[in-house]
Amino acid sequence: MALAKNGAEIPLLPKTEQTLFTRENQKLILRAVFNVSTSIIGAGIMSVPATLKVLGVIPGFVLIILVALLVDISVEFMLRFTYRGESKTYAALMNESFGKIGSVAVQICIMITNLGCLIMYLIIIGDVLSGQGEHLGVLQEWFGIHWWNSRNFAILFIVLFVMLPLVLYRRIESLWLSSALAVLLAIVFVVICSVMAITAILKGQTVSPRMLPKMDDETSFFNLFTAVPVIVTAFTFHFNVHPIATELGKPAAMSSAVKISLVLCAAIYFSIGIFGYLLFGDSIMPDILVNFDKSSGTSAISSMLNVVVRLSYAFHLMLVFPLLNFSLRTNLDELVFPKKPFLATDTKRFVCLSLVLLAFSYVAAIFIPSIWYIFQFMGTTTGVCIAFIFPGAIALRDVHGISSRKDKIIAVIMIVQAVVTSFVTIATNIYNMSGNTP
């Protein structure tokens, strides 16, 4: 379909786009890849090794690829209906198909998901600086255990002097450079882990990871489902599809950026999963950074690498924080103050929302003991809604009459697998929490 004069109708994937790979478009796509990849990676990389411990290497690899493919399809549904209609946000896209109820539903899910991610970031940063349980943090290893490097105080310091200045930026367009640095830090993290794992293999210090899951009984089988929401949450970035796509302007460019980002992130996830599992085996923690304390280093070099790998990812999360906070704050403002002026133009409202969200994130990070619980909660509820159920429902509703029979079949499969997996995971978690685990 050709571009209409009013710009309302744009094809999703034009058969011919001769200028797609010009130098200018390559730069735009590269910037979009950084923002998309940063939105995806976030804290998800931390719990991937723990999922491989639960699933085994082969099922873990298959799950990562499967979720990445389904996410690509769901984003394609979103982009196709976005460019056919007039929506500029995810909420507006849902409003076109399901009215006010649809837009409010997606806003609530985005707020819960993003707020959960921000809480996870602070938990992980607290793990890095002040440790968790028997594992010491970087500050405690350097200076000993004191009140000023306790978990509560360390997170508070980061919130006030690092996070607060970052979240006060009002435009997402300026974040691509920080996103590029965040992706680079994530790659550095993976490279260091791989070097440490290969060194450990050469020294015979690793244990062969399980290729397949260990299933002793029926409970062990259902426990496999608890790993699924972790991977789903790790690939959920749909709340930033519209802001990033708006900057690109060209549907084919956004589609290319998403595919490149998914391949890159899938490679990063599996790499850290397998190397992290090789390094720590069944002692792997839900937050792998906790394993990189001084007890895991047997020499000065390995101890230094442990510090570098933890601090690099802590800095990565500090750079990702404003990207997710932007979407969270915007959706909260649109839901609570739908008739108010644009948020960036109202300094008082902008600052108040930013402070409230930071304060809530800090308090929650203090009282929630592990990121595994947040991953499972979001992955079984809001995560699957944002990533699969809502996009699938849009394709089935088909208000523009553009879904093919194949699209609708895929949408049904996507929704059914999301609902079934969520139901089994929630039931298994409730069963385990009731003390019935062996």
Automatic annotation (TrEMBL):
Transmembrane stretches, start-end? 28-52, 58-83, 104-125, 145-168, 175-201, 221-239, 260-280, 300-328, 349-368, 374-397, 409-431
Q: Ranges for the Amino acid transporter transmembrane domain?
A: 30-427
Q: Keyword Membrane: yes or no? A: yes
Q: Check the record and name the InterPro entries matching this protein.
A: AA_transpt_TM
Keywords in alphabetical order: Amino-acid transport, Membrane, Transmembrane, Transmembrane helix, Transport
The stretch of residues making up the signal peptide is: none
Cellular compartments annotated: Membrane
- What biological-process GO terms show up in the record? amino acid transport
The record describes its membrane topology as: Multi-pass membrane protein
Q: Does the keyword Disulfide bond apply?
A: no
Write down any Gene Ontology CC term. organelle membrane
Question: Which PANTHER family does UniProt cross-reference here?
Answer: AMINO ACID TRANSPORTER, AMINO ACID TRANSPORTER AVT6C
Q: What is this protein called?
A: Amino acid transporter transmembrane domain-containing protein
Q: Which organism is it from?
A: Solanum stoloniferum
High-level lineage:
Eukaryota, Viridiplantae, Streptophyta, Embryophyta, Tracheophyta
